[in-house]
Write a structure and sequence with these properties.
By secondary structure, the protein is α/β, with parallel strands linked by helices. It has two domains: 357 residues, Glycosidases (TIM Barrel, Alpha-Beta Barrel), CATH 3.20.20; 88 residues, Golgi alpha-mannosidase II (Immunoglobulin-like), CATH 2.60.40. It is 27% helix and 19% strand. The protein contains ten helices and 18 strands. The protein has an eight-stranded parallel beta sheet, with helices on both faces. Strands 11-12-13-18-15 form a five-stranded antiparallel beta sheet. It has a three-stranded antiparallel beta sheet with strand order 14-17-16, with no helix packed on it. The longest helix is centred in the N-terminal third of the chain and has 24 residues. It starts with a helix and ends in a 14-residue tail after the last strand. Bound molecules: ligand FHN. The site of ligand FHN has 8 residues, from loops. Its EC number is 3.2.1.51.
């Protein structure tokens, strides 16, 4: 079957490319042709089970990138590496042999997963993603299938188990990041050019499967897997294998969540299959960027993973360029929730297991904001009212309350609101002061100004709550529809 598939891939690649150019030019709402796919999306539309509902309602998550790359902190031999710190092995100024010996110095004396989990909880994270193995292949758990793991470092102990336990204890769901790309494995290939490549890659696939099953056996409280490093041509030929493996993993942990970065479809397409349907439980393509509109999300579940500097995931001791402020990160969080997504902020602890002070400060500032405003984040999502320049709407999936999160205070103190049709504004008040009732001023049908008190000093983004109901009658001022 694998052989058949790889031939098929070659024969059909031009057809697929042709179809894609057609799709790209197909105007919205025009029915398009459907390819018959054996390994495309498993479902059309969102998962509706409880576990996925929990995922959807997280709002804020934490990512942790940690591995032996943290020991170099983005430098080698006195020289500064300007790429992402966890990629330093691919830098021609760092000899690969030197990198591959780093694990012999991996002994993070200050690793305290309970402290990390407490800090994440204080920040308001509801889930976290930990790099069990990044592209270098160093496994942070005791793996039976490789010697390149934490048990052969001076630290000698499992990193992942105590971390899962600590985060579970804080009520933060854990997701296991796993890079399929693995520079440490002899069978790993970028592409399969020869029979020898194909034979070697079969070993690599068996190894990958073994490690994944091992992870799920060792840490069964994990809620999902967060895949990476699946863009190689070799992996894109593995639709049959990946589909079987995904089914096997899902059978091990009911409700397991796997995003769109794992499987390729019959034509080697990832994230979205050749018919444009999402593969996996949520879209995983939002890395260091956010969608701008709800249309950009195609109505799918999604999360965005974000670095504090421009592009550093693992520990880099010398952040250069723009470093995001908590204000910017809070805005990204709110924007994500307003577009039905989760926002995941990355942390890169140093080689000793310390969370750097800049990240600790951001976590504290975000946490302080969340303590006051979390109702606008947790269990909230998209509202179809026209976006306004003052900020973002979110709406509670639990009780329908609407939250206006204000980042730009209008100079006249009036927040413009354009509702959907047949909506009545019942009660409007600041989240921090529910007793202060604000009276909306009708401008025209479905459009209001909400006056906000100007003598109050706003030091951070604030939230106005709108309780509303809908009516069948046209009560909003009785304006007639314009006839054109
Ligand atoms: O190459 C990696 C990168 O180092 C980092 O792990 C990010 C996190 O989403 N993922 C990859 C690129 O997509």
């Amino acid at each position: 079957m694998i052989k058949y598939l790889s031939k098929t891939v070659f024969l059909t690649v031009s057809f697929a490319a042709f179809s894609f150019s057609l799709f790209a030019q197909t105007p919205k709402n025009t029915p398009r042709t459907s390819l018959t796919l054996e390994y495309g999306a498993h479902r059309i539309g969102k998962r509706t089970d409880q576990m996925m509902e929990t995922w959807r309602n997280y709002g804020l998550g934490q990512f942790i990138h940690w591995g032996v790359y943290a020991l170099t902190g983005g430098h080698w031999d006195g020289e500064y590496y300007s790429g992402a710190a966890e990629w330093i092995r691919s830098w021609d100024k760092m000899p690969k042999d030197a990198y591959d010996q780093l694990y012999k110095s991996f002994d993070p004396k200050n690793y305290e997963p309970k402290a990390w989990a407490k800090q994440a909880k204080e920040m308001g994270a509801k889930y976290m993603i930990i790099t069990t193995k990044h592209h270098d292949g160093f496994s942070l758990w005791p793996s039976k299938y490789t010697d390149y793991d934490v048990t052969n470092s001076p630290y000698g102990n499992d990193i992942i188990g105590p971390l899962v336990e600590a985060y579970d204890a804080e009520g933060i769901d854990v997701y296991l990041y796993f890079s399929v790309m693995d520079w440490s494995q002899p069978g790993y290939r970028v592409s399969l050019e020869t029979e020898e490549d194909r034979t070697a890659y079969e070993d690599f696939k068996a190894f990958t499967r073994n490690q994944l099953i091992e992870l799920l056996e060792l840490y069964p409280s994990a809620k999902g897997l967060w895949f990476d490093g699946t863009w190689d041509e070799a992996w894109k030929e593995q639709a049959v294998f990946a589909d079987e493996l995904e089914k096997e993993m899902r059978a091990m942990i009911p409700g397991l969540i796997i995003g769109s970065r794992f499987r390729p479809d019959d034509y080697g397409n990832r994230h979205f299959d050749s018919n444009g349907d999402l593969m996996g439980d949520y879209e995983q393509g939002w890395e260091r960027k956010l969608p701008n509109t709800y249309e950009d999300t195609k109505g799918n579940d999604w999360d965005a993973v974000m670095t504090v500097p421009e592009n550093q995931w693992g520990y880099h001791s010398d952040w250069r360029g723009h470093v995001k402020s908590s204000y910017e990160l809070i805005e990204m969080l709110v924007k994500s929730v307003s577009l039905d997504g989760n926002f995941v902020l990355n942390f890169g602890p140093d080689g000793q297991g310390n969370i750097r002070s800049e990240e600790a400060k951001l976590a504290k500032e975000i946490g302080d904001w969340m303590k006051v405003n979390q109702k606008a984040i947790y269990s909230c999502g998209y509202l179809n009212w026209q976006k306004q320049d003052w900020g973002y709407y979110t709406q509670s999936r639990e009780d329908g309350k609407i939250y206006m999160v204000v980042f730009n205070q209008p100079l006249d103190g009036k927040l413009r609101v354009k509702t959907a049709d047949k909506v009545i504004l019942d009660k409007v008040y600041p989240l921090e002061n529910p007793g202060m009732i604000l009276t909306p001023e009708l401008i025209q049908k479905n459009e209001y100004f909400i006056p906000v008190i100007m003598d109050q000093k706003w030091t951070s983004p604030y939230v106005i709550v709108v309780e509303s109901s809908s009516t069948d009658e046209d009560k909003n001022g009785g304006f007639q529809k314009a006839k054109t």
